Amino acid sequence: MTETEKKAVVLVSGGLDSATALAVARDMGFACHALTIRYGQRHAAEIAAARRVAAALGAVRHVVSEIDLRAFGGSALTADIAVPKGRAMEDIAHGIPVTYVPARNTIFLAFALAWAEALGAGDIFIGVNAVDYSGYPDCRPEYIAAFETMANLATKAAVEGKTRFSVRTPLIALTKAEIVRLGTSLGVDYGLTLSCYDPSRDGAACGTCDACILRRRGFAEAGIEDPAHYRAAALAP
Q1: HSE value, Cβ hemisphere, 13 Å, CA-based, for 109
Q2: Can you give the residue range of the structural domain that contains 55?
Q3: Is 53 exposed, middle or buried (0-12, 13-18, 19+ CB in 10 A)?
Q4: Which among 106, 135, 231, 232 is least buried, having the fewest CB atoms inside 10 angstroms?
Q5: How far apart are CA 2 and CA 218, in angstroms?
Q6: Averaged pLDDT, groups of 10, the chain, 237 residues long
C-alpha cells in the first residue's frame, strides 16, 4: 500500500452482502481494512467464512474484534430462541423478526468508526440492504444517514476538520439478484461465504431460514448457481 492509496474500513460478516461490499470497495481503489465482530453469535462458522472472504478479496488487514452480546440476549442469534424456518416471502417481508440483534449495526459501525479514525480513513463500507431485507430497522437509508451525521459530530478527526466520515452502502438499493450479479462481475467467490442463521457444525447451511431463503431466491433470479454448501435435507424435492 502506498501513502496515496485511500483507506477504508469494511465490515465483513462472512455473508454474501458483506463480501460483495468488500469487492466493491476494492474495485473503487480502496486499501481495505476488514473488520469482523465476534458478538456471541451461535456459530463459529461465520467467523471462519469472514476470514476466507477477507483473504480472498485482498484485505490489507483483517481484525476480528469481540463484544459479547449474549449478555443481553433478545435475539435468536444470541439467545436460546428458535430460528424461524420455512417462512413464506410475504411473512419474511413483514415485521421485524426474532433474528434481529438489538442495536447490532450501531455497535458494528461504532467499532468501524473507531478503527477508521485511528487509521486516518474517512470511508466505512457496510453491506446493508433495504430492498431484499428481513425488516431490520438498522438497514434503512435514514438510519445510515443519521449514523454518518453522528460520526462527524462525535470524532476528534471530524471536529478538527481532518476527516469527513462517509458510511458507504453500495448495496442498499439493490435486489439480492442484483447483488449476486454485481459480486460475480467483480470476481467474488460466493462459495466462500455463509449466509445461514442456523448452520450445522461443519458450516452447512440449513437452506430454510430467512437468510437462506433470500439467498437462494437471489441466485435463482440472477440465473447463477449458488455454490453454498447446504444440508442434504434442504435440497430434497
Answers
A1: 29
A2: 6-189
A3: buried
A4: 232
A5: 37
A6: 74 97 98 97 89 98 96 94 91 87 97 98 96 80 97 98 97 96 98 94 91 95 96 62
